[in-house]
Amino acid sequence: MSTLDGTVAAPDTSPAPTLPLASRQDGTYPRPQMLRTAWADLDGTWSFRNEGDESSWRNGFPDARDILVPFPPESSASGIDEPGFHPVVWYSRPITHEDLLAAGHDEHADRLVLHFGAVDHRARVWIDGQFVGEHEGGHTPFSFDVTELLTGGAPDAVHTLVVRAEDDPHDLTQPRGKQDWHEDPHAIWYRRTTGIWQTVWLEAVPTASIGYLRWTNVDHATMRLTVRLHGRRSGGERLRVEAWWDERGEHLATVESTIGDTATEFEVVLPIARQTNGQAEDELHWTPEHPRLIDATVALLAADGTPVDAVSSYFGMRTVGVDAGTFLLHGRSYDVRSVLNQGYWPESHIAAPSRQALRREVELIKELGFNAARNHQKIEDPRFLYWADRLGLLVWGEAPGAYAFSPRAVQRLMREWMDAVERDASHPSIVTWVPANESWGVQHIATDPAQQAYARSLADVTRAIDPTRPVISNDGWEHTNSDIVTIHDYEGDGVALARTYADDAARERLFSRFGPADRWVLVGGARDEGQPVMLTEFGGVNYQPGVQREDGWGYTSASDGDDWIARITALYDAIRASSFLAGSCYTQLTDTMQETNGLLNADRTPKVPIEQIRRAVTGR
């Protein structure tokens, strides 16, 4: 086995890993595929105000209230529970010597990095009144080296961390997803999430450290690893990667490589997948039915071989694609049975109410009979993706949309989306990218060449960053250059739905006229080239057992639980009868505010016994 630079792998004599196995973590660490053992969790009680300016915060926080981070101030979980507009909010928290120790700061790890999982929408950060930096993009992570600001003084010094978050509810150029720009929720939009909504944490690293990892499937037996380093290097360093299969307690490979100037790429070949004339390949493959993960340790070594830095990671051997109207997993036809997941909780909005809730969400989706989830208009917490990796759930990664078309809107969404794809590209669970939905932000795409060019460029830049997954240019209708043609159809009659998707003649009719939403399926010169067709929003049947919401609604309504299940079963029977549909996505997993069309209540309890829902979804 050899690397891209020709380095021959070391003999297979490595001991068991000394770092914790990344594939067996508890879902607490905020960056699951680049795990270190020491870090300081800065979530918890912070001071909060929703007014003031920079000068008024330098010397303290008069009249501040307590807020529980990472929950947004609009939510009850935060302790603020003020659902109105919050165009600017301020946070403050002390950083103590105990925090530095928890982060692992010592003479061997002398750089301190402050991490933010996500702050919606634009964040500015200070420590002890000194400006640290800023970031724009409400769903993507950012970090700052804060070593000089937190060290050099008295050992027991207490420092003040200040965060200002700006989130203009009326700025439609801002990628916002399902967050309403009206004060109260209307139609399909929900209450806002302002400010910090994912974990804030502090981590100590060496002067030269591993800053970024990306795993890319090359083929059935080979992964390409991209590594970026941060900090000052002494020269002559090397990278060493070791891979283990924890399921069998088996060491699979050791590879070493020299380091490039900016980033290093090299291949990790798993010999077991080359053995027995290829008959062992399936033993390593990641699928929803068998979510096998391979653990890896990535170590930075000095020129003399001394360890400088090391992180735990994992990957899944998983290839996806499309061909002949079919979605392919490992080169074989795979029926995608998905559910629309808003990722929204009544008490905490798009922030999960607990880390355990992220695992439970994946478990519930699988228990209902689905093998996939379309995370709708939200770039999900990486810990949800970790549980999807570990428990076996296909995920469609989707950008939160803006609602205006302008140069500023284009720049904002493009930048945030590229950061999201870069962050999540290593997760084997993610099998499809969705940069746009239902022409949001490109409302005149059917006739406007500029908007068509934007949709094409969003899809193409996604492919440029990650050529290994299918891309959907505009989920629902008005596709320009989609690898999968997706359609939204809320027809409530199963017999009528069956006619629309029955056979090849029905497919031809679908592509040659306005689609179910009175929108063209293809625009801007796009043609039917035999792409897979999926019904990626359907159902949405309203049923409210128990307490009735006066504003609750769905696309159709059921009179009781039996009627509800019968309607869902009829819709799925229509999909199962189609000769060409390659997959589907039911709307939706849970009731979400005024949308009472979930399979589960908002508190995640099933509306009828869960086995009845699973039977309707799977047909068995």
Structural topology:
Layout: E1 40-41, E2 44-49, H1 54-57, E3 65-69, E4 88-95, H2 97-102, E5 111-116, E6 119-120, E7 122-127, E8 130-136, E9 142-145, H3 147-150, E10 159-166, E11 195-196, E12 200-205, E13 208-219, E14 222-231, E15 238-245, E16 250-258, E17 263-269, H4 281-284, E18 294-301, E19 307-315, E20 320-323, E21 326-329, E22 332-333, E23 336-341, H5 355-367, E24 372-375, H6 382-391, E25 394-398, H7 407-424, E26 430-434, H8 449-465, E27 485-488, H9 494-500, H10 504-512, E28 533-539, E29 541-542, E30 556-557, H11 561-577, E31 581-587, H12 610-618
Parallel strand pairs: 23-24, 23-31, 24-25, 25-26, 27-28, 28-31, 29-30
Antiparallel strand pairs: 1-12, 2-3, 2-4, 4-10, 5-9, 5-12, 6-11, 7-8, 7-10, 13-14, 14-17, 15-16, 15-18, 18-19, 20-21, 21-22
Helix pairs in contact: 5-6, 7-8, 9-11, 11-12
Structural write-up:
The protein has 620 residues and is of the alpha+beta class. It is 19% helix and 29% strand. It contains 12 helices and 31 strands. It has a 7-stranded parallel beta sheet. Strands 3-2-4-10-7-8 form a 6-stranded antiparallel beta sheet. Helix 9 (494-500) packs parallel to helix 11 and helix 11 packs parallel to helix 12. The longest helix is centred in the last third of the chain and has 18 residues, at 407-424. It is globular, with a radius of gyration of 25 Å. 49% of the residues are buried. The model is unreliable at 1-16 (pLDDT under 50).
